[in-house]
TrEMBL record:
<dbReference type="InterPro" id="IPR016193">
    <property type="entry name" value="Cytidine_deaminase-like"/>
</dbReference>
<protein>
    <recommendedName>
        <fullName>CMP/dCMP-type deaminase domain-containing protein</fullName>
    </recommendedName>
</protein>
<dbReference type="InterPro" id="IPR002125">
    <property type="entry name" value="CMP_dCMP_dom"/>
</dbReference>
<dbReference type="Pfam" id="PF00383">
    <property type="entry name" value="dCMP_cyt_deam_1"/>
</dbReference>
<feature type="domain" description="CMP/dCMP-type deaminase">
    <location>
        <begin position="8"/>
        <end position="135"/>
    </location>
</feature>
Length: 155
């Protein structure tokens, strides 16, 4: 796959994750986030959005729960796309999304918006990089990700 194809694919799948974030039930205590997991052939293998099944669900953990086997060898070449940087800490559950991702062979994570310090300090990208994962931020799409969270951000 060429660099142009990768950039176009990243944009397309990240936009899909952002679109999923619009499905989140409203919350005053958590961001609205969407996430998709795509294998190396471009097939969707998991998707989710915050609070889909439980008020404490994060998008990445919902998408990861859809995987038939978290150790599936196809995941080593898969990419996880999230509208918001995967959390490095959280107050609602004991394990962060970064930690859950590190339990899988997923090596590449792409996100649009770096987590602002509204609820916790966002350090997910740093934790994933420190563990040897490839982390790509596409800030051009951050305004679209912020849009679903306007109610949480100071004007």
């Amino acid at each position: 796959m060429s660099l142009i194809d990768t950039v176009e694919s990243d944009q397309r799948w990240l936009r899909a994750a952002i679109e999923l974030s619009r499905s989140c039930p409203p919350s005053q205590t958590a961001f609205s986030v969407g996430a998709v997991i795509v294998d190396s052939g471009g097939a969707l293998v998991g998707e989710g959005y915050s609070r889909r099944d439980d008020p404490h669900d994060h998008a990445e953990e919902v998408a990861l729960r859809q995987l038939p086997d978290a150790k599936d060898p196809r995941l080593g070449a898969a990419t996880l796309y999230s509208s918001l940087e995967p959390c490095g800490a959280r107050s609602s559950r004991p394990r962060s999304c970064a930690s859950l991702i590190l339990d899988t062979p997923i090596q590449r994570i792409v996100f649009a918006w770096r987590e602002p310090s509204v609820f916790v300090t966002g350090e997910g990208a740093e934790l994933l990089r420190a563990a040897g994962r490839t982390v790509v931020e596409i800030p051009d799409l951050a305004p679209l990700a912020r849009e679903a969270n306007r109610h949480l951000l100071a004007e």
